[in-house]
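G.,

No rush on this.
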Amino acid sequence: MSYTSWRGVVGLIKPGYRPGSLEEIIRLLPEGIGVIPLYLDEGIKEGTQKELLDAMEPIKEKVAKLAALKVDLIHPMGAPPFILRGYRGEEEIVKSLEDRHGIPVITSGMTQVEALKALGVKRMVGITYFGDETNRKSAAYFREAGFEVLGIEGIATWAEVDRLSSQEIYSFTKQQFLKNKDVQGIWIPGGGGGWGALDAAQTLEQDLQVPVITNTVAKIWAIQKRLHIRQPLQGYGRLLAEMP
């Protein structure tokens, strides 16, 4: 069986059941792009290293299911399960999936790396709700991808993220920016629910005068790029406004 939409169909794999990010993506995608969402059966609940690493096999099973539906693009959401394997390790997994199923696959990490590079960022800081070990491995991932990582700091834990406001994210991010010299861009993964990164990004860009790449905007940009669509969107930062 296959499903079609006049501008293409993307299959999304949600790693957990926290609401918000899927709603954001569907709201911001251009008209005419179909979305088929799947969820990992158990879902990531606590964000531990073991839980994130163990998610890979279920992700691969959902990729196969979406491939059988003949979508145009497959996007496993959630950066950590791939980032923890390193930039080259992620490349190998994605190539294996594409070779097996014959359908393009993009990860959250890939979209964020591509977005930062498209805006000319070389020196970056990151703001996450990951633990110290995941932040350390995230920094190693971006260094392997060619960036100078000035710092990646956690503002909260996985369980606390739903209680964060966009104002709190703005304040913490600005502090990290001012602590580091010559920052060219800011990376903020995750999305949806109480994680108000999307709302904070535009104000941060206006005030700090550097690109802010959030999870949602990187996805919207990368999905359009893969489906050969270019529909700029104002109010969510440079990436979607300029569509480089």
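When you get to it, here's the other one too:
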Amino acid sequence: MEPSQAPVRHAPFRPEERVAIRKQLERMLANSLFKNSKRYPNLLRYVVEHTLEGDPSELKERRLGVQVFGREPDYDTNADPIVRATAGEIRKRIAQYYHEQGHEAEIRIELLPGSYVPEFEILAPAPAQVPLTPFPASSATPLAPPSGLRRWIRYAGLAAGVILLTGIVWLKPWTPHTALDRFWSPVVDSSGTVLLCVGQRQFLGTSAEPGQWSNWDLPHAVDPHAGAPGSITLFKLYYLGSENVALQDVTTLGRLNGLLQAKGKTCVIRGQLSTSFADLRDGPIVLVGALNNDWTVRLMGPMRFNFERDNDTFWIKDRQNPSRRDRAVNYQTPYLELAEDYALISRVLDPTTERMVVVAGGLTGYGTMTAGEFLTNPSYINAIAKQMPANWEHKNVQLVLATKVIGGNSGPPRMVDKYVW
């Protein structure tokens, strides 16, 4: 019998259903999305088994922390959110697993947001078709409905089909089709709000902002409007780093925010000076800017491609070829004489935050704008997709871009290096 397309949720479970679900669980845990981790399989197996055995009431955060991760019974779940963080990552990896080809007809194991009790979807078999038995020769031929009634039945069937098709189109969830969609699918499929963290420069001011360091690249400015010691007037506030964002970064921020919202994601925008490490663990992250975004420099530091500085020269460092410094910009160059800029795009599952992180940052603002253009224009990623290895959309990706700069305007992006793992 062919499976129908209507998923059926089962509770309680029949013995054969428990066997099928356990086989599906092991199939998923053998996938590369799970098999290289200990935490994700342990938690997913625990909640699935307890649900199958009819004991889902015990699947609470504190109990899971104790039973699965060995925490003390009175541990602080707010200070140690290991269960929430692990469950969020499991949800993302489940979504990635079912996006891969070949898993469409498999039993679905879902861990919905806000719950640690999994749900299962099993394709119900279609009812067997009963063969039509022809009337015996001696039987009277059944009367056909009048022509007007036949026409009405035909039109009604056509209308029902149109309504059904329309419903399928509108209710069908977003699925990636273009290379650009596939690039962003790990972010779009991740649970939680997307944090757009934009870099902030330190500006000329009389002193560093509270809690910040002085920028020794800039001369010390005299402030004729200084108020009482320690106070920050509105005039001084204008020049402080946390109140300023570069125009190129704003342009890139707007592009990325518009794209993600068009794909149904909720976004929150913050400056890097007001972004904490705890903020980075709440959901997927998009970092805009490089040298003016401390989180970009920190999170990209261990990666193959990252940002490096030597006095006035900044470059994209290649850890596999550390002596290479040709992808560089000297900041003493008059800005109208800058001929080329470089940018780094990264989309990685960051081991520090355990979240999907996307970086769009250039050595200067021109490179950042080029990265934003690349990440929002389908033609650019479509053009390089054929150069990418198989299944690249489910792997970590770093792309090094270059752009010509003429008279203070950047040209189209071109990929000069890549790393996929």
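Residues 3-126 form one domain. The chain is about 35% helix and 20% strand.

Enjoy the weekend,
O.
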